[in-house]
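From the pipeline queue, job 12 of 40. The input is one protein chain; the requested action is below.

Action: predict structure.
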Amino acid sequence: MSDVLEKIIADKRVHVERQRGLVPDSQVLTAAETAPRVRGFAEALKEAMRDGNYGLIAEIKKASPSKGLIRENFDPRALARAYADGGATCLSVLTDRPYFLGADDFLGQARDAGSLPVLRKDFMIEPYQIVESRALGADCVLLIMAVLDDEQADTLATTARGLEMDILFEVHDEEELERTKTLNPELVGINNRNLRTFDVDLATTENLVSHVPEDTIVISESGLSTPQDLNRMSAAGVNCFLIGESLMRADDVAQATSELLTPFDSDAVTA
């Protein structure tokens, strides 16, 4: 891990213990068990591709460690509605506060704004966070293989599946991808951003996609901002994407989303 990532994870451990002191395990489990019914995240992506469309996970993100403040006029409800109007398939909501200026409340606000399934995007290191995610209304959780060992990943995945949530396993190299295969992934996100150097290279998706199990949905993440980028990924066999920054910077988010989803090559999208 990079020094930045190590600090994020160290701070997250402190945050989780503090949160557990405020909301005990038993209380958060009760909230999870009484949360609104899970919306099918993976199924929504499958349906989009069956219909000949891209599957877009549109991200609600206020800031990032590398880019600073991304969007000043930030209203999760309005952004969720704009994404839905623009044709997004699912939502991703950043809830990490120190590094992304996120908040747990943002997830519920975005989910309540419409009917799209929602991914909680945070640094998951403890089962408590998975249960908390369901309590907040998340339909899917992100597991970043770069920050988890095999035992941690298995424990977190088991917890999520026990709550009927989908899981997006994020990888950025072949070693991490190989480790996910024992976890029977339905969704694998290939991050084009190297988490050690923070460099972005779309060839990462192109190089790794052939190593993903055949029945797994592949999502390309980071560095995607134009229809040409999506067409390039589609040519490699990837038709689902997680995109945030370029859309968050748009004045008209709905229009930007719609324009992004217009295939550069009308024959490019295949299920």
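Job complete. The longest strand covers residues 55-60.
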